[in-house]
Each structure stands twice: as structure tokens, then as C-alpha cells.
UniProtKB/TrEMBL annotation:
Source lineage: Bacteria, Bacillati, Bacillota, Bacilli, Bacillales
Domain Protein YjdM N-terminal: 4-32
Protein encoded by which gene: phnA
Pfam families for this protein: YjdM, Zn_Ribbon_YjdM
Protein name: Protein YjdM
NCBIfam families: phnA
Amino acid sequence: MSKLPNCPKCNSEYTYEDGSMLICPECSHEWTLQAEAEDSGEKVIKDANGNILQDGDTVTVIKDLKVKGSSSVLKIGTKVKNIRLVDGDHDIDCKIDGFGAMKLKSEFVKKV
């Protein structure tokens, strides 16, 4: 059995799972593991559909994107393999076949 975290409100060790929620029976506090990760200072990067992205994931571009400094366009449906998550406005660093190294915003991709 996996060890569930203590309640962040009253520090009770008797928390239990109810679907995707964690519940404390002593103070009735409800929270999710995702909210706990965000509260701990970890930056959570999500795609356009709300899926959590991680280093090494494969994503697909969901919108035609103009490439700055070039006349070419990154077409919808372009698959990008082995992404790296970085800090900043453009939070995905990747290499795209035919384009080279690029930075993308996570709001314009979806996880495959």
C-alpha cells in the first residue's frame, strides 16, 4: 500500500483517497496530489488539454505557428519528440526535424 501524505491543514496521518481527491477525516480538508506538488514549489507545466508534461515526452503541435525570423510555418500536427522543460515564457525546448532547435509554449501543444 502506498503511503499517503499527511493533511496539510492539521497534519493528521489518517488521510484517505476518494477518487482523485485526498481527504482528512479529522478536519474535513480536501486536496489533490497535484495541488500538493504546486504548493511545494515544483513548477507544473501542462499542455493545452491540461495533461502534465515531463522531460522526454512526445507532443503534437495543435496550431500553425509562425517561426520568428523565418518565412516558414510549423504546421498543425507536427510531432515533437523528446522535449525538455525549461523556465521562462517558452517553457519547452526541443529539436524539430526540418526546423532545428526551437522553444515552444506549452499552450500550443498536446501530449501524445
